[in-house]
């Protein structure tokens, strides 16, 4: 019986599910008999705990697996070069109809860049350094989605963006999300304490806090963000065109998750364990981030066209 917070089904049926790294060590040490041949620490074992299909490593103990996805992630890093102007602007530009947006928009591509950089090495068996990288990866992902939500909240003009009243809470909460998620991930993997440590029973791969922060929190954030931006674009700005970018970005994100969780095993078996759904998901996620930038640009471009912008 699968409970809320169990990762066993995900680690079994979703090839290249990164968070499985955080459970492999405790299974290996506390319940090694539950491991199947697909999970035994051999030179070619792929990611996952008792996976039904996985991408094998290249044949040596410390070699990488899922090379196709790593190559695509590397390409995603170069794709983010188009976001350099966003990263160097000290303040967000005035938006159409006198609406301004939080500087977290500028940092989101950078956090996405860090996230995919960490995903590449953490898509392998759970050696101690890779466990730490996986934990940091989880912290970055949770913080990335806080940045997304913060952007929507400040876009409502509850507080003015670029001011201490918006930046101090933004950075403070970001640090909390990163610290808490990284610590919980390390505790799950290394059993530092009994609070978030060993799963009970071990084969359930159970951790409610980790499940909430890595699965529930990102999904909830996307839904809230989309709802807030729909209100701002349609009701406040009274625009239609930007909304299509937001809809397309949301659709690409949903498709990426469907490809990752529903088609991974099918793609893995169909490709004879060469690629899986994470490869398709990475492409779609990168496209979703790019379209989200176009949505932001479409809202602010009127001001760029009409007024010169001089950073202070």
Automatic annotation (TrEMBL):
Q: Which of UniProt's keywords are assigned here?
A: Membrane, Transmembrane, Transmembrane helix
- A biological process from GO: protein folding
Q: Which domain of life is it from?
A: Eukaryota
Known InterPro entries for this protein? Chs7
Classification from the root reads: Eukaryota, Fungi, Dikarya, Basidiomycota, Agaricomycotina
- Return the protein name: Chitin synthase export chaperone
GO cellular component, as recorded: endoplasmic reticulum membrane
Which GO MF term does the entry hold, naming one? Answer: unfolded protein binding
Q: Where are the transmembrane segments?
A: 130-148, 168-190, 210-237, 243-263, 275-296
One matching Pfam family is: Chs7
Which residues, if any, are the signal sequence? none
């Amino acid at each position: 019986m699968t409970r809320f917070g169990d990762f066993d089904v995900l680690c079994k049926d979703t090839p290249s599910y990164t968070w499985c790294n955080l459970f492999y060590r405790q299974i290996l040490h506390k319940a090694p008999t539950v491991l199947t041949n697909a999970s035994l620490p051999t030179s070619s074992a792929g990611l996952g705990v008792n996976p039904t299909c996985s991408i094998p490593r290249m044949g040596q103990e410390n070699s990488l697996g899922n090379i196709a996805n790593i190559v695509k992630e590397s390409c995603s890093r170069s794709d983010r070069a188009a976001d350099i102007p966003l990263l160097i602007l000290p303040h967000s530009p005035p938006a159409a109809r006198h609406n301004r947006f939080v500087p977290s928009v500028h940092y989101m591509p950078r956090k996405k860049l860090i996230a995919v950089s960490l995903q590449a090495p953490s898509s392998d068996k759970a050696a101690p350094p890779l466990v730490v990288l996986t934990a940091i990866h989880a912290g970055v992902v949770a913080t990335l989605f806080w940045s997304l939500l913060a952007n929507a909240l400040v876009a409502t003009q509850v507080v003015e963006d670029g001011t201490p009243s918006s930046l101090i809470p933004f950075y403070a909460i970001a640090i909390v999300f990163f610290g808490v998620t990284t610590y919980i991930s390390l505790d799950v993997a290394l059993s530092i304490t009994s609070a978030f440590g060993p799963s009970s029973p071990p084969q359930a791969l159970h951790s409610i806090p980790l499940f909430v922060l890595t699965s529930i929190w990102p999904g909830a954030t996307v839904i809230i963000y989309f709802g807030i931006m729909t209100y701002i674009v349609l009701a406040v700005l009274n625009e239609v065109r930007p909304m299509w970018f937001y809809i397309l970005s949301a659709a690409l994100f949903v498709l990426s998750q469907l490809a990752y969780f529903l088609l991974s095993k099918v793609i893995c078996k169909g490709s004879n364990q060469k690629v899986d759904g994470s490869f398709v998901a990475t492409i779609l996620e990168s496209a979703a981030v790019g379209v989200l930038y176009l949505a932001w640009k479409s809202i602010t471009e009127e001001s760029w066209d009409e007024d010169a912008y001089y950073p202070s």
